[in-house]
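We close this part of the discussion by returning to an individual protein. The encoding preserves chain order, so positions in sequence and tokens coincide. The sequence in question and its structure tokens are set out directly beneath this paragraph:

===
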Amino acid sequence: EKNGVVTVKSAHADSAWHGGCLVLAEFARRGLILPVAVGEAATSGPSHLALCIPYITNAMKFDLLRGTHSVGAHVRDAACYVCWAIARAYSPEILKPFIVGLTHAMLITTCYDRELNCRRAARCVEYAYPCCDCLCWHGGLLTPTPLFCYRSLSI
């Protein structure tokens, strides 16, 4: 256990990641993940939302080799649900420190994930972010792009 988060290393790691993502999504959807540190934690560490973001971005890249195939599409899809729940629950001012990392992970998933459902979920989440169209990202401007532009990449 580290910072209140239990890491799971077992044969059922994908199930644990999937369940963890769904729990985070439901907490975020209800506004239960504190966006700012309160009480004693305000002076000693980051907010709960800041602690969750690295796990969410890692879940967007989750892939586990099992025998001759790999699993993880359900984890990546659940991570997209977490991102959607965060986008819907918190204001753009709260999301501003995290938006570049989350958008980067979603953009990679949108363009390069091998599962069509994950690519679609990540693309739909990008539309949910309220300040996504005004980000300066690596010297360029990241703007919402119609879904049909990504369909040619998916085929």
User: Anything to note?
Assistant: Confidence is low (pLDDT under 50) at residues 1-6, 132-141, 146-155. The first strand starts at residue 64 and ends at 66. The longest helix spans residues 13-29. The chain has eight helices and four strands.
